[in-house]
Amino acid sequence: MISFDKIFFVILFLTLCFKSSSQKVVEPIKLRLADSLDKLKIEYSSITWYGKDKLLLIPQYLEENVIRVVDTAEIGRALNNTNYRITGKPLPINGLDKLKESLGIAGSSCYQGIEAASIMNDTVFLAIETCEDSDYSYFIRGVISEEQVKISPEIVMRLMKPKNTNNLGSNIYNAGFESLAFLPDGRLLTIFEYNRQYADKPTAYTFTTMLDKTSVVPLDMDSLNFRLTDITVIDSFIYGLNFFYKGSKDYAAYIHGNPVKERDLDKHLVKRINQKKTCYCRIVQFQIKGNRLIRTGKEYELFQKCTNMEGMVKFRDGFLVISDNFPPGNVLTELHFYRIN
């Protein structure tokens, strides 16, 4: 005789399976960019709000020492008119060269650019990625105005990168802290790029705006497959941009993942991802409970065409997401709006 408990768990299992397999993929609305923003050499790594009506587009390497400021009015116009091309305005960033000199990475390939940004009032906070040989990523700050961003090279905080579990004692290739956002209590939150495949343990950190090492608090977190390339905070929830690239000969180093485990939180993706026949991008919801960053179970799969999704912010009833110009070749920057119902 089949017990009621067994019937209950069978129904629950089937419900969860149906929910995972029937999840609706969110289609993008592509926003057209002017030629000045849509160049192959511009590798955007972050977007963040400045005030209530300005969006900053931040290239990783700042080849022209400028970032771009886009008014929300332009974004609205591009959403309503598919022929309109967003232009934005250039905003110089100064003081970064002095910072690199102070860190001993001026002119060095170990400096691998800006990976994340967040702003509070007139203070901008940035995460700096370094090469595999460096044990640390760096967090810096500066002052932003209508005329420029001025970096304070004397204010630097470093965080040690998690070690590579596949090669004990070594750092993870081409990986750092690619996310940075303010929590409701005014502290900053950052999460390492890898949180299962390679890192020795999933870890997030919070710290104060003083960038004081003594203020750093580590948070344990639920495991997450694939790369975490940005976060944004809405009320008490953290939303993470989570991207899997299927790999190819010219791009294999950046980033196959290890196979998804049958028993982890992403077991519903086993067949899709382990066959490496498709790229995959989603927004995953987190929440802080005590000293742990947990996954709530809510996530949104984003339709995209294997372009490397790097930056995300909340906008209206959805999210703006920007890609860089990878994989190499003829891929241009893409700015998409995903409406979340």
Which features does this protein show?
341 residues; 9-stranded mixed beta sheet; 4 helices
What would your notes on this structure say?
About 8% of the residues have low confidence. This protein is mainly beta and 341 residues long. A hairpin with a 2-residue loop joins strand 7 and strand 8. It has 4 helices and 22 strands.
Quantity of strands, as a count: 22
Class from secondary-structure proportions = mainly beta
- SSE order, one letter for each helix or strand: HEEEEHEEHEEEEEEEEEEEHEEEEE
How many domains, in number, for the residues?
A: 1
SSE blueprint and pairings:
Blueprint: H1 4-21, E1 28-33, E2 44-50, E3 54-59, E4 66-71, H2 72-80, E5 85-86, E6 89-94, H3 96-103, E7 111-120, E8 123-130, E9 136-144, E10 149-160, E11 181-182, E12 188-191, E13 194-195, E14 203-207, E15 217-221, E16 224-234, E17 237-244, H4 270-274, E18 280-289, E19 292-301, E20 309-315, E21 318-323, E22 335-339
Parallel strand pairs: 1-5, 6-10, 15-19
Antiparallel strand pairs: 1-22, 2-3, 3-4, 4-6, 7-8, 8-9, 9-10, 11-12, 12-14, 13-16, 14-15, 16-17, 17-18, 18-19, 20-21, 21-22
